[in-house]
Amino acid sequence: MKILVTGGLGFIGSHTVVELLEDGYEVVVIDDLSNSSLEIIDCIQKITGKDFSFYQEDVCDLNALEKIFSEHKIDAVMHFAGYKAVGESVREPIMYYENNLVSTLHLCKKMLEHDCFNFIFSSSATVYGDPEKLPITEDCKVGGTTNPYGTTKYMIERILNDIHIANPKFTVMVLRYFNPIGAHESGLIGEKPNGIPNNLMPYIVRVASGELEILSIFGNDYDTPDGTGVRDYIHVVDLAKGHLCALKKAFDSEGIFYYNLGTGTGYSVLDLVKNFEKVNGVKVPYKIVERRPGDIASCYADPSKAYRELGWKAHFGLDEMMRDSYHYILKQHEDV
Ligand code: WQD
User: Fold this and answer.
1) Longest Cα pair distance anywhere in the chain, in angstroms?
2) How many whole angstroms separate alpha carbon 272 and alpha carbon 230?
3) How confident is the model at residue 185 (pLDDT cuts 50, 70, 90)?
4) Would residue 149 show up in a list of annotated catalytic residues for this protein?
5) CA 159, CA 172: separation in Å to the nearest integer?
6) Which residue, judged by its Cα, is nearest atom 10 of ligand 1?
7) Are strands 286-289 and 215-218 parallel, antiparallel or unpaired?
8) pLDDT interval class at 308 (50, 70, 90)
9) How far apart are the first and last CA of the chain?
10) Which residues pair with 121 in a beta bridge?
11) Ligand 1: does its nearest atom lie under 6 Å from the Cβ of 200?
C-alpha cells in the first residue's frame, strides 16, 4: 500500500511517516518546507532504515499533484499540510483561507481524478470553540471557532462532508487533535517552530534550555483547579499511531468518520511546568500575565469513540511527554 503524506516533514507528519514506514507502508511525501527542513528526511531514514519518495512542492500546485498521482498509484492520502499558528491566522486571514482551503480542494480533485478514495484529515479540537460540555465528545457542537485557523479546519470538515455526499466511495477520517506535544524517543524529530513559539510546550523547553528567559503564563484566574488553562496534551507518537488505526478503518469502510484524538485527561499550565521540572530536574521560571485573547479555560477529550471504533488509545503519560520534549531540544543543541 502506498500513502501520500502532505506536510510529511512537519511535526506530526514526520512522526506519522515513521510509523507508516515501520508498519510496512510505502510513503510519498509532499512538503514545501515552509515549516520544516530537508534534514528531516535523513532523520526519518536514520530512525526507520527505510527510504521514501519526496517532492518539494506546494500542495496547492495542481501540476505538482498531477505529477505525483501520475508517477505513483496512491492508495490513501494523509493531509497534514496547512498553516496552523492561531495568532498569525488572525493577522493574515487571506493567506490562511487560501492556503488551507485551496490545498485541500486541489488534493481532493486530484484524488478523485486518479481513483484514490481514502482521505485522512488533520483536524483540530479548535473546531469545538468554547466546548458546550466536558469531556468533549464528537457529537458536541462545532463551528464556534474564534480564529481563522480554527475556522479553516471547520470549513474543511464541511467541504469533505459535501465531497463524500457527492462521491460516496470517497471515505474520510476526520481526526480532531487536542494538544500534540513530545517527540520521538530518538530525539531526531520533534517540534521545532520557526521563531518565538506560540504554543506552551515549545516555549517551556526553550526556557528550560536557556534559549528564552522566562515563561509568561497567560492568566491564572480561569475557572480551573489552579486558575491556569487546562488542555488535553497528547504525545505526538500516540497521535501518529492513531492515524494508522484510522487508515486501516478507512480501507475497509465507506463514509465520513469523526474521532477525537486526545488522552481524556486535562492538565493545567502549572501542572505542566511542575511536572517538567520534576521529570527533567530543571527550573522553568515563570510569571503570571494577562489572559491571551481567544483562549478558553478548559478543553479535553472523551476519546472513547476512537477506542471503540479504531481500537486506539493514548499510552504515553505526562512524564514521558515532558521527558521526550526536553530530550529533543537537548539533542538539537548537541547536534548544532
Ligand atoms: C495551551 C495553554 C495558554 C503559551 C493551540 C491551537 C490548537 C492546536 C494546539 C493546532 C493555554 C497557555 C501558552 C504560553 C501560556 N494547534 N500558554 N503561555 O491554544 O490550547 O491550542 O495549539 O491544531 O488548534 O489553538 O495551545 O499551547 O498555545 O496553549 O500560558 O506562552 O497554555 O493560555 O492555556 P492551545 P497553546
Assistant:
1) 55
2) 10
3) very high
4) yes
5) 11
6) 84
7) parallel
8) very high
9) 37
10) 79, 174
11) yes
